[in-house]
Structure formats: structure tokens, C-alpha cells
Amino acid sequence: MTLPDHTLPIHAVVPGVKAALARHPLVVLQAPPGAGKSTALPLDLLGEGWLAGQNIIMLQPRRVAARAVAARLAEGLGEEVGQTVGSRVRFESRVSDRTRLEVVTEGILTRRLQRDPELAGVGLVILDEFHERSLNADLALALLREVQGALRDDLRVLVMSATLDPGLPARLGAPLVESAGRAYPVEVRYLPADPAGRVEDAVAGAVRRALDTDEGDILAFLPGVREIRGVQGLLAGSGIGLDAPPPRPSPAGGEGEKVVLPLYGDLPLSEQRRALLPDPQGRRKVVLATSIAETSLTIEGVRVVVDGGQSRTQQFDPASGLTRMVTGRVTQDAATQRAGRAGRTGPGVCYRLWSGRTQALLPAAQPPELLTADLAPLTLELAGWGTNDPAELPWLDAPPPARIQTARTLLRDLGALDEAGRLTPAGKRLLDFPTHPRLAHLLSGADDAALAADVAALLEERDPLPGGSGADLTERVEALRAWRAGDRTRGDAAVLERAERLSRQWRRLLKVQPDNAAPDPFAVGDVLALAYPERAALARENVTGTRKGRFLLAGGQGAALPEGDALAGAGALTVAHLDMTGAEGRIFLAAPLDPAWLRARATWQDTVRWDARTGTLLAQQELRLGALTLDTRPLRDVPAELKVRAVSDAIRAEGLHLLNFSPAASAFRARVESLREWRGPHETEQEWPDLSDAGLLATLESWLGPQLERVRTRDDLARLDLLPALQALLPWNLTRELDERAPTHLTVPSGSRVRVEYRPGEAPILAVKLQELFGLADTPAVNGGRVPVLLHLLSPAGRPVQVTQDLRSFWNSSYFEVRKDLRGRYPKHPWPDDPWTHEPTRWTKRREGK
């Protein structure tokens, strides 16, 4: 065996790593890019005594990195991948009986843990590039820590990263080993202002400048494949990347050819290696890469980085259950990683295509994927692990309970979990498929396995048809099958080649031969519905008469096809890709669905609901699939509880104004609510019932239920006598107290009984003619004399002339101003000079004289 090279910076801390692993089951290593932590350290650990001849598994978050790291490790031993060093990525295994060190992607490690929780024969697991905090890395760490605590106290875990949360070692209770690394200086150049327009134009322009002014190969970062192709086209238009030499000399690199190479996850392995290794013809390379080039990979010869400043990440919306790709600003830690690529082999330059001011405003880092992603795959894995409660595992950050609940709902719909959240036999079968549970259900449950393989492959790939080709997935299946049969004229050949490669893997797993025949008109939609049952959709014109192309999904959302799409006339669809950012979603990919598929899975449900438009109670049986109503028939013998619930829901939705509170009912509510507000410290909330709007709406069924059983229309609601129902809410022992503490009337000095108007939150109002209070010094009060009323003193015509809660002060001062203003207008009424001694009266002076 050829010994590995020991000149890399990581070797300065190898003794410390070995010693830490000898003493601790979990160790954290921080080493900058280029230190050799991924491509050298694992080889140094193979001979350690604590490993006891067992193997090492190293986790890499990306397939490109896993293959490249395995190749570099094997090269360090003078071997090929598959001997001492092996690799496993999805559908690709290069290992042998001799393999001691396996470089794997995240899903591979999770699969192995599910099948062999003890990891027999493995002594060390390395989690590389942990700073990315991918969902599977967090899951793997949680599972490994549980294995260490319950099954394998001899299993060691090494967490490695170029950048690190400073609090991580303490959170893990693990020692930290740090490597200084070997990074050359990188000059960072900002723009004076953020560029306007497309990122492709900005990146292409910066690449041209760098080719003219700087030395070395160039690595440019772009958010996705579409943008990479756009920059390729722009550079080709300038004569860069063509076979012919450029038209003029280059000051930095002299006269010579340049080659432009893409680098992204779905590239064939041979194309990835072209981007990573020096050009065999000695040409200057321009590598256009997605974020996969940020870490782990060293691209030989790169001295210049052009950072477009954007990244594309998945964003999951729990409300809609949809995941979409979102393009946003690069984070500060990712920008640092990208710039560091220019200083791996010598001093370099990084062009950041944004301003220095913007740099300070960039987010520090992406949140852990566990907190933002679709958790259906993780939830299925946890069920397979036998964990119903995620809180049982030692997470760095626990998955949000609401997202776990959303995932469980989907998995129950797919038949993967039972109502208790336990894994079903069908769910166990889904774990055998290295893909999202939706596609696993499609693959495992379709009657036409060959079609399922093609559909699953196309869903995981980019669209092979050009823009404007319509939304029908069936056309993509036909294009793939035509390509397989030798017709290379339909669609993007590179995309179709990748889709066929993936379909072939699924067919091998399903043990089925390819089918090149055109699929049945509804077959694709039926297969697709296995993955997206909540996105089975019914045309809205079937029920509302709206324009064609608008659909209602079983999940309750509305969505529409682009105007003029060929699928617009379909009665039903299964929707694969849509965007729900607006009030109505936009459908990008779908297939016609056989209405028989919907009816076969729908169930008859008794439905009693209030029609707000007509103000009537509708009672019928509906053939329903989620939010879709496929058929109706009259419902006879409607259960009373369904009537009460439907009317109660309508009142809650539209408000208490649907009910007609008589003056007596309104007054009763106001008296009780006032006493509830005035309750003393010895009284509890429960003593006086809550008759506020919120209280009555919350308890409609209990206090009004018997009367609601008779309601059929809005007029029936208005005729309900609410007073007896409200009075029944008052405990019998408080009825007398209500009359004593909040009387409906007060007797005034004239002998009149005057109604008290109660207003919860305000003082009660007593509106009475001024002359009826002559001689009264103290303001009348309620609530046992503790709450004075607000007197509205009225003129003989019944108009307020004074509002007061201090009657004594009124007689002594304001009365004389009122007397002066009114006695000429009302001469028949008494206006004595001394209101304290005059007899109170409700009559005129003539009437008094009689």
C-alpha cells in the first residue's frame, strides 16, 4: 500500500484528533478549506488501535463531493476507488471486501442505520461539512448519538467542518480540535453598487474581465443550471469556450484557448471530473458551478472566484404542503467559503458582484434545514427507527412539532403511518426506495411499474421540454420513451439521458422491463395521484361555470393553468408542480386524471351546512374526496347535532348579528356583563356567566342548541326568543342578586320608576327629568351602592341639559345656569330658586296646583 502524503496542514493536528477520539466517543474538528481534513485525515485514522480493525464511514452531503473525495483518498494510497477506499451514492456502489473506508452520501448512511442500528464492523463515523446543517446530517447525528448511548459505547463520531458554530462543541459535550490550515490571501473586490438585471449578464461580464486581467482558472458561482447555461451561451457569443483560440491575446494568460465547463449535481461523473481536474490540453478553465462547489471539492488551478451572490434553496410551506425552489442572497458564511476557493493553491482574487454596503446586510448563515424543510422523509425515518416522539432523540435543534404534524398527515394519507403514528407494512416498503415518500409510494403502489419508473424519473429531473410546451406530464413521458427508442429530436437530450438513467435504476429495483408505448390518456394522472393525492383536482367549471383551466385541489387550494394550455379542457387533473404564492396557485406540471379514480376513492358523507348566500340550511349527502364534491343526494332524517353544529358555525362565521336580541335580552346581557366586570376580589369569574359576544359565540351549542334544532332559514334565526336561553345561563342562586345589584329601574324622589341603561365597561345611565330630583343630594348608585349612575338630567322636553355623577355639585352651581336658560322656554314647569327645598315632581305647575 502506498502511504499518504503527510505535507498537508491537517497533519499538524492529527495527533490531537487521534488522542481526542481515543478518549471521547464524540469529537469536533474545525479545519479551513484546503487543510486536508476530508482527503487526508481519514487515511491517518485507519490504523488506530481504538478502531480495532473496524471500518470508517465518512458522510458527505453531496454526491459530487462524495465521488471526488473518494477518488482523492484512493489516489493518496495509489489505488482505485473500490479497494481500500470505496464510495456509495444513490444507485452507485464502488466497494469490495477490501474496503475499510467508505465515503457515502447522507441517505446511504440513514439506510444503513435503519437496517443495522449497531453498525456492525464500523468503528468510526465522520460527518463532514457539518456546518451545512442538512436535514439528513442532523438526523444522522441524532441517531448516532442514540446508538452510542444505547447500543455501542465503542462507536466514535467525528464531526468536521470548515466553519463552525462556536457553541457546537459545548452543545455536544465534545472536545474541539482546531487546524490553522493553509490558506493563501484572497483579494476581495466589490462593485460600487449592486448590479441591476440578470445575474447571468453580471457573471459573464466579470468572467470576461477576469480573463483579461487575472491569472489562473476561474470558478464562477451561479444559483442553478438555467443560469449556468445562460452564462455558457453569453461566453460562447464572445468566443470564450469554443474550440478556436480567442481573437486577441490575453494580458494575463497570453494567447491560448479557454474552456467553459459546468459543474452541478446531475452532471454525469465524467463531466464532473472534467470540471474538477486540470484540462488535459492545458487550456484555461472557466468552471460555472452551483453551490456544490462551496465546500469539500478542490478544483485544481482555480485562482479567481466570481461570486454571483445568489443561491437557490428549497423552501417548504406547511400551509400548502408544497416545496418550491427559492432564489435569494448568498449568506455571509457561504460567501466566505466561496472566496476561499481562490486561495487553495496560491494567492487569488474574488469578485463579489454586490456592494460592500450590501455585504454587511447579508444574513450570517442559513438556518438548519431541519427547521425549514419538508419533514416527511425525516418523519418516515423516525417511524422506521421506532420513534413516535421526535423529542426522544438527542437533537441539536429539535424538529418543529407543527411540521412533524404536517408530515404525519401526509404519511397517513399515503398509508405509511397508522393513526397512532406507527409505521405500517406499506410504510416499511417505502423505506426501501431512496427517494421522497411521495415518489416511493408512487413506485411501490402503481399497477404499471414501468410507467411509474418513467414518471418518478421525470419528476426528479428538470423539464426536458422547452418553455411554452404546456403543462402535460404525459408529453414528457412520451418524449422520454421516444428518446429511449432512438428518436433524439424531442426535448433536451442531456435531461432525457439523465431521466432514462434514473428510470433504469427504478426499473431494476422494481424488476420490470421498459415500455416505449404511448401511455393511456389517464394512466399518467392515475400514477401521479399516488404521489400527490391531495393534488387531485376537479375543474371549477363543473360547479361554478367559471373559465376553463381553473381547478380546485382535493387539499382545498385553487389553482389555474396558463391561459390556452392544452389541459384546460380536462375535467380532472393530478397536479405535480405548482406555485401557491398567490391567491390562486399556478400549475406548471400536471396530467389528466380519470374521474373514475376520484370516485373510487371518494366516500359518501352526511353534510349539513349553512348557505350564507341564500341564508338557508342545506342537508345532503356528498360524495367527497378531500375538498372535492363529486356528487350529491338529499339527506333525510338529519341528526340534530349536525343541524346545531352547522347553524352554530354560520353564526360564528357571520357574527351575532344573525340573531335578533330583543331589548329585554340586550338589557339582561348588559346587566350580567356589568356585574361580571364589577365583581369583587371574593368573587370568581365563574360566578357571573360570560355573556359577551366572544363568550356567547364560544358556547352557542350549549345555551342555544335546543332552539337551533328548529332553524332552517335566516328568518327562523331572527325569530328566536333569546331571553329565556340567556336567563337559563344564570345560576338560580344569582337571580335575586342580579335584581338587587343591577335593578332594571330605580325609583327617584318624584316617585317615578326610571329605567337604568347598563353599558358594560361604562357607568350605568339614568336619564330622568331634572324636576324629579329636587332635594336629592346623593347621586343614585347600583351594585350595592358601589357604582354611581351617570345622570342624564333632562329638560321638560326630554333633552339632556346636564350629564353628571355629582348631583350635589349640580344643585349648588350648574343648576342656576340651566334655570336661567330654560325657565323662559318652559314657564309651566317649576324652576325654584332653591332646588333643595322644592317638592320633586313630574308635572307642570298647573298640574301641581290641582
TrEMBL record:
Stretch list, region Disordered: 827-850
The domain of life is Bacteria
GO MF term list: ATP binding; helicase activity; hydrolase activity; nucleic acid binding
Question: What residue range is the signal peptide?
Answer: none
Q: Where is the composition biased (Basic and acidic residues)?
A: 827-842
Stretches that traverse the bilayer:
none
User: Residue limits of the Helicase C-terminal domain?
Assistant: 206-386
Does Oxidoreductase appear among the keywords? no
- InterPro entries per record: CON_HrpB, DEAD/DEAH_box_helicase_dom, HA2_WH, Helicase-assoc_dom, Helicase_ATP-bd, Helicase_C-like, HrpB, HrpB_DEXH
Stretches assigned to the Helicase ATP-binding domain: 18-166
Print the keywords alphabetically: ATP-binding, Helicase, Hydrolase, Nucleotide-binding
Under Gene3D superfamilies, the record lists: 1.20.120.1080, P-loop containing nucleotide triphosphate hydrolases (3.40.50.300)
Q: What is this protein called?
A: ATP-dependent helicase HrpB
Query: What is the protein's species of origin?
Result: Deinococcus wulumuqiensis
